[in-house]
Input
Amino acid sequence: MTSTLMIIQIVLAIAITIAILLQKSSSIGLGAYSGSNESLFGAKGPMGFLAKITFGLGLLFILNTLALGYLYNQANTHSVTDTIKAKAAAAQPVKPFVPASPEKTTPKAPTAPAAPVSK
Output
């Protein structure tokens, strides 16, 4: 279900982008490339039609976003910390590391160097 809504979300995002870019702005935008739209959309031109389409697509986009958020929230009912606690409880208790004490030895006195032997 969420994968279908995600595909719809991407299609809606692309459709909204196209509808916004087709609208007339102060620098005309991409509306200059769409040709004569007055005869297709009526006497007022495409502005009323494109504004309604943009509003409708925006409303669908917001509703789809809310539905996706709700479904993802319902799917993830547990936290990451729950899995960490479960793993820690299942693991064997580890004995603390105690370093071995050094062997007690009596210190030896250094020996004097031997004199060279001549032949």
User: Anything to note?
Assistant: Helices lie at 2-22, 38-41, 46-75, 80-90. The chain has a mean pLDDT of 76. Residues 46-75 form the longest helix (30 residues). DSSP finds four helices and no strands in the chain.
